[in-house]
Amino acid sequence: MSPQDPIGASSRPPLQLHIPEPPARPGQAPRFDHLPFSPAGAIRRPDPGVAEPEMRDLPYGLIRVLDDEGRAVGPWDPGLDAETLRRGLKVMAQTRAFDDRMFRAQRQGKTSFYMKSTGEEAIGAAQSMMLDRDDMCFPTYRVLSWLWARDYPMLDLVNQIFSNEGDPLKGRQLPILFSARDYGFYSLSGNLGTRFSQAVGWAMASAYRGDTKIALAYVGDGTTAEGDFHEALTFAAVYRAPVILCVTNNQWAISSYAGIAGAESTTFAAKAIAYGLPGLRVDGNDFLAVWAATVWAAERARTNKGATLIEFVTYRAAGHSTSDDPTRYRPAEEAACWPLGDPIERLKTHLIARGEWSAERHTQMEAELADGVRAAVKEGERIGTLGQSKPPVRQMFEDVFKEPDWRVLEQRRELGV
Amino acid sequence: MPKMDMIQALNSALDVMMSRDPDVLVFGEDVGYFGGVFRVTDGLQRKHGLKRCFDTPISEGGIIATAIGMGAYGLRPVAEIQFADYILPAFDQLVSEAARLRYRSGGEFWAPITVRSPYGGGIFGGQTHSQSPEAIFAHVTGLKTVIPSNPYDAKGLLIASIEDDDPVIFLEPKRIYNGPFDGHHDRALKTWAESPGSDVPEGHYTVPLGKAAVVREGREATVLAYGTMVHVAKSGIEESGVDAELIDLRSIVPLDIDTIVASVRKTGRCIILHEASRFGGFGGELSSLVQERCFYHLKSPIGRVAGWDTPYPHAFEWDYFPGPARLAAALKRVMED
């Protein structure tokens, strides 16, 4: 500073624009040292009734139950019986079998589009099994495991993916942008995040009526940057809505790594703190941890303690959809190096370690599931794949309004249907 | 029958519906204890309780998303957006969600929500308290758009909107909340009490959506208007000396096409009057519909009188506002064609 420059303007460094970049791109060795991981069993489990300020350490840890040897350890172990775990394993394996078959079907030209949830199957499976039939899930397109956990008829979903005459959504939606009200599965949309805040309204309605139902909603890591995310957290906190708000942080939003959504500076779970909500950061590839976190958050919701934000740390092992090739933007071997492993393998190892499962039974189960998927797809193909069969065109003009107005009726006549 | 202004009539509609149906609740910015910046929700919280009429964060997207979620649950929420100029943060929720939910879910879910919002200019509100966004919503398949022009219609249309199972954008012309403003800003405002449409039953009644009103019968031309412009049109027609028929559309979706077509076929001339700017305005759609259905009955080109294609300017409010003189001039012009 000088008399000529009393505020020191001349000595300021040039400003630098920061653009986050992932630790590894194609051709480089995968690295995950930017992510904080805790050992299994290391994170304390506060009573679900305690006040939020008492647990502001939780968003920075990682709640894990299954250790590297497949043992269930620590205070978050939900103590599930083997039958429940075998059921969870089956749901996850069915999700993967279905995904693999439908991905191939898209490649064979039987449908336009598909999205796999490979590596993320534990989340929808455990939460669907744990929550009540009356509760409502506001899904993303990567939680079809929710439906399989509730024995959704596979043929109906195949028909939707083929947009054929049997499609319950009457040929109106992109494959797997589904809706299944009776299975607690709210209507999906391609607009990311919009249903996150609707879930809060749904939960508020349950509380308004004095009912006992709670809501659960998902967004991905990328969508936390949308206004809807913040609107949802604000309304959930303000009105103490009985809702579980989940971020499935699978590290990638198409080709943008989670750092582009803000993960470079903090965790997604920690976003809860500013809203005065509990934030849990949970191993999303650990069926037991997902279950335990959901039990905890559901108890808060059901006892009028309000909402919880849960970040599930997971990894999108497949591409975003059938439309992208992940080896173009990340190392091909990154999925195999993911430190939290594969959710199916981890639960399988745990069950085997408990003497409740075997490699042979697992192989047999996978074969049976593949047969089941094959049979459903064959049945769907009999009705017709995309373009071979479609619902009556007349239905295109239905459900715009409850009762069609003159425009719709006139245009239906104009089309001659 | 009691006399009510628009604000009292809208308040009465909300009160009647909250009394009849426990699933009806009201929320928005400042609507609770305070009763709304225009007083439309005055007293509702006191009478019906905190849970039935409450304040929200300043978050239009959040307000509409909450309403959609509640609607999907089975409630009939009535959300207020304080000014229609501020509805745009909720645009995605209205366009991509409320409007499409029934269709995309194959009828499994729907959003029976009513979104009330004061709109239009003439109050020196500048660019951000004066806009008329009705055409934007009319263009969106799956939304209904309703605009009342007097207290009786306001109450009946609002009740019909709340009872409707589809999402309704209910735009309240704020310039006529307190009296039927006819565009003569330099004259004293008439009160509703001394004007037609202010005899409002206390109880429940509806004015159906999609039924226009013939406000004035005429033989020489048809004027299509809604909201504040109905009153501007009345004055403009009188000042023009043209024997024009005036139709108050009351809702632009659903649109009462039959009443419009019958009138234009009778008169052979059509002027469309709206406050929103002209290019891409709802007048363009009306003009096309009239042309398609009445071409061989037309004696002159269809005219549009509208706000200019500029933002709504503060100092030039009355230069921008399509007042009675502009309508009168347009009517005289079509009579000469």
TrEMBL record, chain A:
Q: Name one GO biological process term.
A: branched-chain amino acid catabolic process
Q: In terms of domain of life, where is this protein from? A: Bacteria
Query: Its catalytic activity?
Result: N(6)-[(R)-lipoyl]-L-lysyl-[protein] + 3-methyl-2-oxobutanoate + H(+) = N(6)-[(R)-S(8)-2-methylpropanoyldihydrolipoyl]-L-lysyl-[protein] + CO2
Q: Which GO terms describe its molecular function?
A: branched-chain 2-oxo acid dehydrogenase activity
* Parts forming coiled coils: none
What is the E.C. number? 1.2.4.4
Reply yes or no: does the keyword Oxidoreductase apply. Answer: yes
Outline the extent of the Dehydrogenase E1 component domain: 90-382
The alphabetical list of record keywords is:
Oxidoreductase, Thiamine pyrophosphate
The record's annotation in SUPFAM superfamilies points to: Thiamin diphosphate-binding fold (THDP-binding)
Q: Which cofactor does it need?
A: thiamine diphosphate
Q: What is the uppermost EC class here?
A: oxidoreductase
Q: Does the keyword DNA repair apply?
A: no
Q: Where is this region: Disordered?
A: 1-54
Q: What does this protein do?
A: The branched-chain alpha-keto dehydrogenase complex catalyzes the overall conversion of alpha-keto acids to acyl-CoA and CO(2). It contains multiple copies of three enzymatic components: branched-chain alpha-keto acid decarboxylase (E1), lipoamide acyltransferase (E2) and lipoamide dehydrogenase (E3).
What protein name does the entry list? 2-oxoisovalerate dehydrogenase subunit alpha
From TrEMBL, chain B:
Q: What is the lineage of its organism?
A: Bacteria, Pseudomonadati, Pseudomonadota, Alphaproteobacteria, Rhodospirillales
What is this protein identified as?
3-methyl-2-oxobutanoate dehydrogenase (2-methylpropanoyl-transferring)
- E.C. no: 1.2.4.4
Please state what class of enzyme this protein is: oxidoreductase
Organism domain of life: Bacteria
Q: Which CDD domains match?
A: TPP_PYR_E1-PDHc-beta_like
- Tell me where in this chain the Transketolase-like pyrimidine-binding domain is found: 4-179
**What cofactor is needed?**
thiamine diphosphate
* InterPro entries documented for this protein: THDP-binding, Transketo_C/PFOR_II, Transketolase-like_Pyr-bd, Transketolase_C
For biological process, the GO terms are: branched-chain amino acid catabolic process; response to nutrient
Q: Which organism is it from?
A: Nitrospirillum amazonense
Alphabetical keyword list: Oxidoreductase
Q: Which GO terms describe its molecular function?
A: branched-chain 2-oxo acid dehydrogenase activity
